[in-house]
Write a structure and sequence with these properties.
Blueprint (H helix, E strand, L loop, with lengths): L1 E9 L9 H6 L4 E9 L5 E3 L7 H8 L7 E3 L2 H16 L9 E3 H7 L6 H9 L8 H6 L1
Parallel strand pairs: 1-4, 4-5
Antiparallel strand pairs: 1-2, 2-3
Amino acid sequence: MLQKTSQEQLSAGTATATTTRKYAIDPSTEVLCCAFAVDDEPAQLWTPSNAVPAAFIEATTATDPAWIVAAHNDAFETAIEQYILAPRYDWPVIPIERHRCAMAAALAVGLPARLNTVANALYRVPLIRTRAPIDAIR
């Protein structure tokens, strides 16, 4: 199973001020990196200067139904994949039936939608995300 953990973008628009699709098709939106892990392997980081990771190609062409992509707020990640990664970087578009949304799964069992509040509810430890690496790139 391929588990995509996060994509980080930079845009003149803001994701909260517009729809996911509008944000994804905005010409100023750029993908800075994509962090991902396969099964229990260590997380890996893709940047636009690298080739598309083999795991994403395999997830697209695999006949094994165990190959799925999971992401928190998968609709957002999928829009970025479809409108930015595929056309700009020849990123393979993984069939929608192989996608799983961790946010939808959390909501289905009565947990909060936001990733940091889900982490706090499940593990009693706040998820600390920092913008420092992104701010440094800007």
